[in-house]
Amino acid sequence: MKLIINNLCKTYDNGVKALDHLSLEINQGMFGLLGPNGAGKSTLMRTLATLQDADSGEVLLGDINVLKEPDAVKKTLGYLPQEFGVYPKVSAVEMLNYYAFLKGIAKARERKEVVTSLLNQVNLYEARNKYVSSYSGGMKQRFGIAQALLGNPQLIIVDEPTAGLDPAERIRFNNLLSEISENIIVILSTHIVDDVSDLCSEMAIIQHGRVLLTGRPSAFLDQHEGMIWAKKIEKEELEKYKAEYHVIFSHLQEGKPLIHVLADGDPGKGFKALTPGLEDIYFSTIN
Ligand code: ADP
């Protein structure tokens, strides 16, 4: 099963072009969709999830024409939106049972089996009788994955799932995503570069509704081997270095800027060779 996106366009009523002839081919496994805020990620995710229309273009999920057959897509889609609304005073097991009913699992006994198995899979069985509204951020997101997995979807879309999770919750959530993505397509939309480097075998970087780069993170890292150099400098030197070198980005280390520079050979002057990271690829692509 493959997801093929051809020339997708969407302009909002206010004139913002959120998708600009966007094309992508997405295979089974975890696919990372990276881009800064406003890049068009959520618009793309909502379009793929058939929650909003595109102006033109085509999307194929296997032999389903996604934009023309939204009901067929919904049967094989799991979607975890950015904000996962939960009803107050409803336990996880009750809520999941209700969602299972909506997904068309009509027999109560079958629903019970499916719900129990999913709650175990996302490690919430012990907390099944607690209100979902009382869950921590990480537990809510894992509950979101349980509801997204109902009905054995072929495609799961997760939009910015780890924003707001503490580090331990994030690791736990990412492990879960990695487990479920073995035989299906999971699209992870995020601006957190580390999540993509930890999880995704393929990725795309989008900006202004266009694809700037797509492929395997490992291939991009290999291509940049020997080309990323770093140096810790004083804050007031930053502009001077930017004028002289191709500074990809800088971040603080012990309160001082550590600049990452792209160069074919050793720039000298105290620069140290770095193993390329996905942040180097990301910032050199979007800037
Ligand atoms: P991302 O998820 O990458 O942050 P979005 O898809 O949310 O990007 O937004 C892409 C662009 O479209 C942004 O400029 C945003 O302001 C605009 N946009 C998103 N939703 C709407 C809307 N409903 N009406 C008008 N403009 C929108």
List keywords for this structure.
287 residues, Rossmann fold, six-stranded mixed sheet, 14 strands, 33% helix, 28% strand, binds adenosine-5'-diphosphate
Summarize the structure in short.
This protein is of the alpha/beta class. It has ten helices and 14 strands. Residues 12, 14, 16, 18, 35, 37-43 line the site of adenosine-5'-diphosphate.
Give me the secondary-structure topology.
Blueprint lengths: L2 E9 L5 E10 L2 E6 L6 H8 L7 E6 L2 E2 L4 H6 L1 E4 L11 H11 L5 H14 L15 H13 L5 E5 L7 H14 L4 E6 L2 H7 L2 E6 L2 E6 L1 H7 L4 E5 L5 H7 L2 E7 L2 E7 L9 E2 L4 H9 L1
The protein binds adenosine-5'-diphosphate (ADP).
